[in-house]
Design goal:
The chain is α+β, with helices and mostly antiparallel strands. It contains 13 helices and 14 strands. Helix 1 runs antiparallel to helix 4, helix 1 runs parallel beside helix 5 and helix 11 runs parallel beside helix 12. The chain starts with a strand and ends with a strand.
Length: 489
């Protein structure tokens, strides 16, 4: 197939692939490749002696030379082997083919061989480079795909909120965690102005922070309130970072946020606990200092009343002093650690005992107690006197809120999560909803002569029993107080 007939000469290009194979694959592959055209040549017919002798000499030279050039690049090996072949052809051509008779024909033959080698080398190197480039690209695509998969895995499963906005503060991307934390679908947020969902009090602060970041080209941190889909405000702690384009101008801003609503509540609870501890210590000290002179004053008033038979003013003074004693006792109970002896008891008996104590006051105020209890007994582990104090305070508050009489419904039941639920529903004046969170704070009261310590002590006792107390109220309709305490094991 590679044979070229010209002027009676058979010019064969068989050594072009042999040179290529020797240069790229080594002597073994080269000998196998060279044997195929030799056998074909002998099969077709020709001058066996010069063909076999020339082939043998070329193969020996290529094999020996390969030992010295095996460490250089294939292109250089091709050039060296091509030069060796040209030299051998000229030597053998001078001996057997009489190159001097038709030098142009032999020159054309060598040119065809060298040109074939050059074209083959170019094609091979091109394919090798394409192959390496393809492998490199495949590797890069694989790494990019792995990186994208990892980023998607992180973005779709983290609770942190990842948000990308442009310089106009319009949302361009948001992570799926926004739906879990804020309730919005991606389609509901993309393209809208960010400031429309931020609390009005925080908008100016965020804009100033973003402007400062655009000027300084440095990341900034801030806290703000973001509106949940249900209307609630979620506290977020955010860090925004500028993203520069190729021209070093600001293209996007990446904001990574975290929901800190629960952390804020915990901090408030901790702060409140610290306040209560300080108030308790202060109250105990003040109450102790007041009680001593109060006892002395009370004794002299009683003595003065006995000696002068003065009832009107003495009774008034003694009544007010008894009220002061009650306040100091509450202060002492608040600040003084009390030993708790927990016992297993039927909560129904404790409530019925409490209602017996308050029945006279209920009758005087035209108030009826209605107790609803499950048939099976409900046992809890509690300190009897402390829990009775809670029920007394709650029911007395309900009585004082019902100036025109009425009914107080008391319900006792078990919950599905293993707790005892006690509810007190009155028909009193009610409490505005915005004031409910403050119930239980020290010295906060809605009564004219109240101290605010009663409910505070109730909260403290219920907390010691690992329970909770909640309030629901409608103005002019009444208040529902729910106390939850774990059932006895």
């Amino acid at each position: 197939m590679f044979s070229i007939q010209q002027l009676g000469y058979s010019l064969n290009l068989k050594f072009a692939p042999v040179i290529i194979v020797f240069a790229y694959l080594g002597p073994v592959a080269g000998l196998i490749t060279g044997s195929i055209p030799l056998l074909a040549r002998l099969y077709i017919g020709g001058n066996w002696y010069p063909d076999v002798l020339g082939w043998t000499f070329v193969m020996i030279c290529f094999t020996v030379m390969h030992l010295y050039i095996s460490r250089i690049t294939p292109i250089k090996r091709v050039l060296i082997l091509s030069g060796i072949y040209v030299s051998i052809y000229i030597i053998f051509g001078s001996i057997f083919h009489k190159i001097k008779d038709n030098p142009s024909v032999h020159f054309e033959y060598l040119l065809f061989v060298v040109l074939g080698v050059i074209i083959a080398t170019f094609l091979i190197e091109s394919y090798v480079k394409l192959y390496r480039l393809n492998n490199k690209l495949s590797y890069m695509y694989k790494k990019v795909e792995e990186s994208e998969t990892n980023y998607r895995l992180i973005a779709e499963n983290t609770l942190d909120l990842i948000l990308v906005i442009d310089k106009e503060n319009s949302i361009r991307y948001l992570s799926p965690s926004h739906q879990f934390v804020l309730g919005y679908e991606e389609s509901e947020l993309v393209g809208i102005g960010l400031s429309t969902l931020i609390h009005l009090d925080d908008v100016c602060m965020i804009k100033n922070t973003l402007n400062e970041m655009l000027e300084n080209k440095k990341s900034q941190s801030f806290e703000f309130r973001f509106q949940h889909k249900n209307g609630d405000w979620i506290e977020l702690e955010s860090r925004c970072m500028p993203v520069k384009g190729e021209d070093q101008s600001m293209k996007h801003i990446v904001i990574i946020s975290r929901d800190i609503t629960e952390r804020k509540k915990s901090e408030e609870i901790l702060l409140q606990s610290e306040k209560l501890a300080i108030v308790g210590e202060l109250a105990a000290g003040v109450a102790h200092e007041i009680r001593n002179p109060l006892t002395t004053i009370k004794g002299f008033v009683q003595l003065y009343k006995k000696e002068h038979n003065s009832d009107e003013y003495s009774d008034l003074i003694l009544g007010e002093m008894e009220r002061i004693e009650m306040i100091t006792s509450e202060l002492l109970s608040l600040g003084k650690p009390q030993a708790i002896h927990l016992k297993r008891m039927n909560i129904r008996e404790l409530i019925e005992n409490t209602l017996d104590l308050l029945s006279p006051q209920g009758i005087m105020n035209d108030i009826q107690f209605i107790l609803s209890v499950e048939e099976s007994p409900i046992f809890i582990t509690c300190e009897k006197n402390q829990l009775k104090q809670v029920f007394l305070n709650v029911i007395k508050n309900a009585i004082e809120a019902m100036n025109n009489g009425g009914k107080i419904h008391i319900n006792l039941r078990k919950s599905a999560d293993g707790k005892c639920i006690i509810t007190f529903q009155d028909q009193g004046c009610g409490i505005p909803e915005e004031l409910l969170p403050r119930l239980g704070e020290p010295f906060y009261t809605l009564k004219e002569k109240g101290t605010g310590l009663g409910l505070m002590i109730c909260h403290k006792i219920i907390k010691q029993h690992k329970g909770s107390i909640t309030y629901q109220s409608i103005v002019n309709e009444g208040t529902l107080i729910e106390i939850s305490i774990p059932l006895a094991i």
